[in-house]
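Standup notes
- DV: blocked on the single-chain target, sequence here:
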Amino acid sequence: MTQLDKEVPVQKAELPELEILYRDEHFIAINKPSGLLVHRSFLDKHETQFAVQMLRDQIGQHVFPLHRLDRPTSGVLLFALSSDVARDAGSLFSDNKISKRYLALTRGFAPEQLFIDKPLKEKHDKIADKFADNNKPPQEAQTDIRCLFQASLPIAVGKFPSVRYSLVECWPKTGRKHQIRRHLNGINHPILNDVNHGDNTQNHFFAEHFACARLMLFASDVYFMHPYTNQTIHIHASLGEQALSIFETLGWPNEESDYFAKED
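- DV (later): unblocked, structure below
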């Protein structure tokens, strides 16, 4: 089994301090690296590094994650700094006062704009969810997508005479597990290096050609209405040098600011 046949883990070398993107007396947000688990899981018994524990040790106090990011996804991860704030922040999600923007590098030329409204049946892990209800009906799942850039390489891979890529902006309206990954795969534009919901032939080519094995999904922005100040908070996580270098190779802009969310 190669590295591309499983979710990419964190390297065993100690990670540097987590990048803190935002902090006030109630909340803190970090730029979670790809491959880092949010919290301890018995599915990864040998893993020793977790975002919750690392951030707690870094700032010297308990933190409470308000949402999740898949292990291979990087980007904005928001925490409460007390259990009371975590409880109050529940309304951010129940009242749709929080918005999350993702950027995904996908196979093929994605549509210019599309609202994906496709219910998703919850997928259970054989170990972690062995007591879960497998008869639960599909849950409502909605994602707004917009294609920002497209590129083509004159290289035949698999059944395709050339390699085509799109950078897709995604705004999930619901929060189902692997929602963006499953929705994009469902329209035949899977995210590059997505082992569970992607095209492994394309994944292997991409990893070798660009020397990159991470999932090309970035939680770039979080917007929320602060429950105590009523101000709109915007938190942005950078894509990183590796992603920008790949984008430049594809003929796209190479500055972080070129990938900021555009104001309507």
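- Follow-up: The beta strands are 19-23, 27-32, 64-65, 74-80, 98-107, 113-117, 142-153, 163-172, 217-225, 232-236.
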